[in-house]
Amino acid sequence: MSIVVIGNGMAGSRFVTELRDRDRETPLTVFGAERQQPYNRVLLSNVLAGIAGPDQIGLVDPAWYERNNVDARLGVEVVRIDREAKTVHASDGSVTPYETLVIATGSTSFVPPIPGTEGGLPPGAVAFRTLDDCSAILDVASTARTAVVVGGGLLGIEAARGLAGRGLEVTVVHLAGHLMERQLDPGAGKVLARTLRRLGIRALLEANVTGLRAGADGARVTGVELASGDVVAGDLVVMACGVKPEVGLARAAGLEIDRGVVVDETLTSVTDPAVRAIGECSQYGDVVYGLVAPAWEQATVLADVLTGADTDARFTGARQITRLKAASVELAAMGETHHGDDDPDVEVMQFADASRGTYKKVVIKDDRVIGAILLGETSTAGTLTQLYDRAAPLPADRLSLFFPGMGGVQTADSPVRMPDAATVCHCNNVSKGQIRACWEKGARSAAEVAAETRASTGCGGCRDALEGIVAWLDEQESAPVG
């Protein structure tokens, strides 16, 4: 069996490494439209903020491909799929046969069709999606004083925080009535806007951008125009208006497309059994997953199925947990967060302290957590995530969901109290027990454990927990007996 992978991003590169962990012999070719080694797109905001360099967010060392007999064609784009001949045609003129084709083309930035974007974005305006985009933003930011971020979702907030950290005056322009409306309710959105304001970031809500303003003859962008007639000035404009699945190749090949490539529980296209799809370009049921954890879970399931490591492996959906860990802004959101008092079967617990930038909400149904928001103070995020992910019964003292240690409730955030089965890294599905086992085999630092288990290499939100567990294990080893 020969396998060809189209796409070398977070889903495609993870599938390639998972496959090689199970099978060293099957001919494997991967095409990546970007020239760089695969990198962690979640951490691009860290590069933008100057917390990390581009070389620090890589996922696969280029030398790994040769060592593992993978034909990696970086910077080579697939331009056509011939399903009848079972070949892919690439931009370098090559034609590569396959027995199994894996489509992992991800998403592309959505840029609204507004005046000023007809021939592409003008100089000084950049869509924020790739490492090249990040480099372009930093080039403009080096001489800019003001920036406008169009879009107040997760990516837009991360971009705004990164630019503000570099000393720019930043304005976020958002169409909805509150920030991050997909993950947050209006109360949390209001607290987030107040927190950002203290960090020097202004948020304009219910603001409809109707055009980009630039100088004559292709000059640099000078700001954005709003439906109200106002102009928001900016030497830099970052477009963070969302993404859309990249399904052009799949559609041209005649595969069934809804929002993404429609697949079944084995990630097989419902059109062609020789074609699989994973990550942000795939659709299971009516859901296109836009977070890293589901994409990596799909990669693992597909590697199990194709290699026979677990022929019964299936992807049956995933719970989506959003983590934002920008400087001075911590957020965890999961599940159904928009419930109010209109459902008699739902109980909502809330706590807010806007002056401290804190907002907490837990949504409960049938004694189970079905949604939660923790903004500003996230010490109970591990406990809530466990309860939500496993649909586990709530503790007797529900205030412990907001304030750790209340009522003597043992929380999952303390290493000594955390059961080995507790999931520490949700991006990679790594438990405390796996971390302990890795430590017992000789990995005695957080970096060594991360290299072995991949814990903390996704969104990075569990890095503190990982370091705490490793430090606790070290303490246990050095503690005097008795």
Automatic annotation (TrEMBL):
Domain BFD-like [2Fe-2S]-binding: 424-471
Top-level taxon of the source organism: Bacteria
Name this polypeptide is given: NAD(P)/FAD-dependent oxidoreductase
One Pfam family of this chain: Fer2_BFD
Key word Iron present: yes
SUPFAM superfamilies the UniProt entry points to: FAD/NAD(P)-binding domain
Boundaries of every FAD/NAD(P)-binding domain copy: 2-299
Xref: InterPro entries: BFD-like_2Fe2S-bd_dom, BFD-like_2Fe2S-bd_dom_sf, FAD/NAD-bd_sf, FAD/NAD-binding_dom, FAD/NAD-linked_Rdtase_dimer_sf, NasD-like, Rubredoxin_C
Span of domain NADH-rubredoxin oxidoreductase C-terminal: 322-386
GO terms for MF: iron-sulfur cluster binding; metal ion binding; oxidoreductase activity
Lineage: Bacteria, Bacillati, Actinomycetota, Actinomycetes, Streptosporangiales
Entry annotated with the keyword Translocase: no
Keywords: FAD, Flavoprotein, Heme, Iron, Iron-sulfur, Metal-binding, Oxidoreductase
Family note: Belongs to the nitrite and sulfite reductase 4Fe-4S domain family.
Cofactor(s) required, per the database record: siroheme; FAD; [4Fe-4S] cluster
